[in-house]
Design goal:
Layout lengths: L6 H16 L6 H10 L18 H13 L6 H14 L4 H12 L4 E4 L15 E5 L2 E12 L5 E8 L4 E7 L5 E7 L5 E13 L9 H38 L1 E2 L2 E2 L4 H30 L4 H27 L10 H13 L4 H12 L6
Parallel strand pairs: 1-4, 2-4
Antiparallel strand pairs: 2-3, 3-7, 4-5, 6-7, 8-9
Helix pairs in contact: 1-3, 3-6, 4-5, 4-6, 6-7, 6-8, 6-9, 7-8, 8-9, 8-10
């Protein structure tokens, strides 16, 4: 099987690597977002008939892997690959098309408001309520771990009175919407949204029937694979930096990379990273082909990335010694980011349980 990139994909990868190599740690988030828009990255994952460039999960993963290598905390994943993808999956309407145009141009910062307790929840447990009224809908409930404290619109997934999930567009300045910011360990931020009878018009409701639940399933599977690609980029960067450090750091008059025990540990890091890359390719294929076993394949991918990513990061810290947790080197930042990736959309332990539930669902209890 040939996994080599097309010419267009290779150009995209080269463009991402050049940008990330020149990126400064203290880059302004608003300026960075506009650069993403100018480079066409915000429009890349969307279909051409929606005004995008028709990219697939492969192109999304290339971009996420590049961001992972640079230890970036940009909100591309949450704003474009989760909220934007859910918006694009909604039935065509003037409201949807207008929002998509603004998202792809970088003029609108969109964020998904999904979880109500923790990252590992499944949609069937969400209970934020949407009630019809004469003017449209009223939303009540609490959404936690909403990515990015600074956003223009949120896609709030709530349960209607008929029991079905739906997605609603809610402006950040809506009456009755309270936002409580919280900083996360990797330097990114999120917020808790408290909806106290927030009123939205009828056009803010994006789906009909049970269409939202089906769209959510596909969006979250693709988003999980893209998140794993970011972790892959971080793992590759950790391996690269650790090997380079071992070549240059001297102890007892020789480079520590000449010590066989440390060589074995770095080989283990390489083997773990390559295992995750193989799983990442399998996950991409499962999503692209809509494989019947895609849910368990993606769960297995996220499990391995969570487990191996943290192991590789901890090994990198150990091999760097005290420098591994200093702000002078990015090693500690990679560790913190990989820990957040592990938690997001369900930790390794949760993913292992999901894998078992799908793989062995037909076996007698």
């Amino acid at each position: 099987m040939d996994f080599s990139l097309t010419d267009e994909q290779q150009l995209l990868k080269d463009s991402i690597e050049r940008y990330c190599a020149d990126q400064q740690p203290d880059v302004d988030a608003a300026e960075q977002w506009q650069v993403f828009a100018e480079l066409g990255w915000l429009a890349m994952p969307f279909a051409e008939d929606l005004g995008g460039f028709g990219g697939s999960i492969v192109e999304s993963c290339l971009l996420m892997e590049g961001l992972g290598k640079s230890a970036s905390i940009a909100t591309f994943w949450s704003s474009i690959l989760v909220a934007g993808a859910l918006l694009a999956a909604a039935p065509a309407s003037p409201r949807r098309d207008e929002l998509l145009t603004e998202v792809m141009s970088g003029d609108l910062r969109l964020t998904p408001a999904l979880f109500e307790g923790h990252y590992g929840e499944v949609p069937s447990s969400w209970q934020c309520l949407a009630r019809r009224d004469a003017d449209g809908w009223r939303l009540s409930g609490t959404k936690v771990l909403v990515p990015g404290a600074h956003f223009d619109q949120a896609l709030v997934v709530a349960r209607t009175e008929s029991g079905e999930l739906n997605a609603f567009v809610v402006a950040s300045d809506s009456d009755g919407l309270i936002s409580e910011r919280m900083a996360l360990m990797d330097g990114s931020d999120c917020c808790t949204l408290i909806l106290e009878d927030v009123s939205v018009d009828a056009g803010a409701c994006l789906f009909t029937g049970d269409g939202c639940e089906a769209a959510l399933e596909q969006v979250l599977l693709s988003a999980t694979v893209a998140l794993a690609a970011e972790a892959q980029g971080a793992m590759d960067a950790l391996l690269r930096d650790t090997v380079e450090y071992a070549k240059n750091r001297k102890q007892f008059g020789v480079a520590i990379g000449s010590f066989q025990a440390l060589q074995h540990r770095m080989v283990d890091m390489y083997a773990d990273a390559e295992l995750c890359r193989a799983m990442l390719l399998r996950g991409q294929c499962a999503v692209l082909d809509h494989s019947a076993d895609r849910t368990e394949v993606v769960a297995a991918l996220k499990y391995q990335v969570g487990r191996k990513g943290r192991k590789i990061a901890e090994e990198a810290v150990q091999l760097h010694g005290g420098m591994g947790v200093s702000e002078e080197l990015p090693i500690g930042q990679y560790l913190k980011r990989l820990m957040m990736i592990d938690a997001c959309l369900g930790s390794a332990d949760i993913q292992r349980e999901r894998f078992y539930q799908h793989r062995y669902a037909d076996l007698p209890q």
